[in-house]
From TrEMBL:
Residues 103-130 form the Elongation factor 1 beta central acidic region eukaryote domain. This is Elongation factor 1-beta. Residues 139-225 form the Translation elongation factor EF1B beta/delta subunit guanine nucleotide exchange domain. Residues 96-113 have a biased composition (Acidic residues). The lineage of its organism: Eukaryota, Metazoa, Chordata, Craniata, Vertebrata. Belongs to the EF-1-beta/EF-1-delta family. Keywords: Elongation factor, Protein biosynthesis. GO terms for cellular component: cytosol; endoplasmic reticulum; eukaryotic translation elongation factor 1 complex.
Amino acid sequence: MGFGDLKSPAGLQVLNDYLADKSYIEGYVPSQADVAVFEAVSGPPPADLCHALRWYNHIKSYEKDKSSLPGVKKSLGKYGPANVEDSTGNGAPDAKDDDDIDLFGSDDEEESEEAKRLREERLAQYESKKAKKPAVVAKSSILLDVKPWDDETDMAKLEECVRSIQADGLVWGSSKLVPVGYGIKKLQIQCVVEDDKVGTDMLEEQITAFEDYVQSMDVAAFNKI
């Protein structure tokens, strides 16, 4: 259950696979779940476990503020792949809870006038929410230049590490290798971000954390969409 021994290569591999499509252990913001798992890891994962390494470096940046992160820390066994599909602990929703949030109220033939009024109000609120148009989300298209250390850097692995960075409001696009001289090529990669959720500072922090491959990152172009 959970990740197993996170001080072992097998446990770190499970963690890396789990984070392949997630930014955090639970939800979309750092929480006490990340703190609990972070404290169980003995140190930075190896560079080839790029998803786990990206997560580790990001959570490490909260080290001074980890006590203020939201949520309640649970035992390590409560987190990980074994809980992905069974987040309630019993594998099935509570029928009583479904009754408590019944949008349309009771279907009893002899329902009271008050019950009918409440049901009609709830239905009206539901229809009103459906009719509302979503707010316009401000987005930007960013072109990044990611420079390796030298001509022996594995550029395919470098790009894999960059693309492993995931966040709500971040979508990676096309990429290409651009010669910079002396046999060295830089990775030029496009991404689209939601301005309120993802900034260039966050991207630079997480990309340069892959220090075995990345020397630096620059913004080559930045355009509002």
